[in-house]
């Protein structure tokens, strides 16, 4: 579950027509956004304190609250961008909602921008992110990459995604890191799928990102990761695939087609079973 980021910014305006209107609009927008985020935080705190809820019920309620809140923030943000598509106000709004935008919503938001907003560095990064997500969306062919497998290896041996994907098997790829709690929580689900379906037509690959390979190796041993690994990918695949947070789990088809993205929990086995026809 992504965290909501509230950017409480003020506009540095020059004396031009409409500046006062933008200042007022931003002030009102910040008030609405802060109220929405605070309400979300209060609801989550109440759910965490409710001892009558089972873990599954609590997680479901928290996810529902997240979905409802993110939808509200996105709706308000897109409305603001339609009214004020250029300048620092547009950038501030986009900074507030970027983390909760789905791929199609991100592109919609970017398409609304005009003028100087398009020259902002943050916006340029989002344009690149949107392009990466589009290029690696479900139904697209995989994008290959090659990295040094282990900096501690004096030979500098390299490994590529194409060493595993596009070789005639369905491959479940888990982008993770040793420091990532939610990543470790998904490992039992991945292990269960691996043990149940591994064979000539299915395999699993873990790819460590944003991590120290030495830490990855220790965590993999502690967590019982017995399938293939790429331990030194760093930011290379996250930039290519537009991955903003981990774990990010992708199911690839035998020819390398991206079948499913961002699988979690029970979705993992459901996607694999459906793909394998079992």
From TrEMBL:
Positions of the Thioredoxin domain: 136-278
UniProt xrefs under Gene3D superfamilies: Glutaredoxin
GO CC, alphabetical: cell envelope
Cited SUPFAM superfamilies: Thioredoxin-like
Keywords noted in UniProt: Cytochrome c-type biogenesis, Disulfide bond, Redox-active center
CDD domains per the UniProt record, alphabetical: TlpA_like_family
UniProt cross-references to Pfam families, sorted A to Z: AhpC-TSA
Record's subcellular location: Cell envelope
GO biological process: cytochrome complex assembly
A molecular-function term among this protein's GO annotations: antioxidant activity
Protein name stated in the entry: TlpA family protein disulfide reductase
Organism encoding this protein: Candidatus Cryptobacteroides merdipullorum
Lineage: Bacteria, Pseudomonadati, Bacteroidota, Bacteroidia, Bacteroidales
């Amino acid at each position: 579950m992504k965290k909501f980021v509230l950017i409480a910014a003020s506009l540095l305006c020059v004396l031009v027509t409409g500046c006062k209107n933008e200042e007022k609009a931003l002030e009102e927008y910040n008030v609405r956004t802060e109220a929405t985020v605070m309400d979300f935080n209060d609801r989550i705190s109440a759910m965490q304190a409710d001892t009558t809820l089972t873990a599954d019920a609590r997680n479901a309620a928290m996810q529902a609250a997240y979905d409802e809140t993110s939808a509200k923030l996105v709706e308000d943000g897109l409305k603001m961008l339609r009214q004020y598509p250029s300048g620092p106000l547009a950038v501030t709004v986009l900074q507030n909602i970027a983390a909760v935008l789905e791929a199609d919503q991100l592109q919609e938001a970017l398409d609304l921008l005009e003028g100087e907003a398009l020259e902002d560095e943050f916006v340029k990064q989002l344009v690149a992110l949107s392009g990466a997500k589009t290029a690696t969306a479900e139904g697209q062919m995989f994008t290959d990459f090659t990295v040094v497998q282990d900096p501690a290896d004096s030979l500098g041996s390299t490994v590529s995604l194409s060493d595993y994907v596009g070789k005639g098997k369905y491959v479940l790829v888990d982008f993770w890191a040793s420091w990532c709690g939610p990543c470790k929580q998904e490992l039992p689900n991945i292990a269960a799928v691996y043990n149940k379906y591994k064979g000539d037509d299915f395999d699993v690959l873990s790819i460590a990102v944003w991590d120290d390979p030495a830490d990855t190796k220790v965590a993999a041993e502690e967590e019982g990761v017995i399938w293939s690994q790429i331990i030194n990918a760093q930011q290379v695949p996250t930039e290519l695939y537009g991955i903003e947070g981990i774990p990010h789990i992708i199911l690839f088809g035998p020819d390398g087609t991206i079948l499913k993205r961002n699988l979690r929990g029970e979705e993992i086995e459901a996607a694999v079973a459906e793909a394998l026809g079992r």
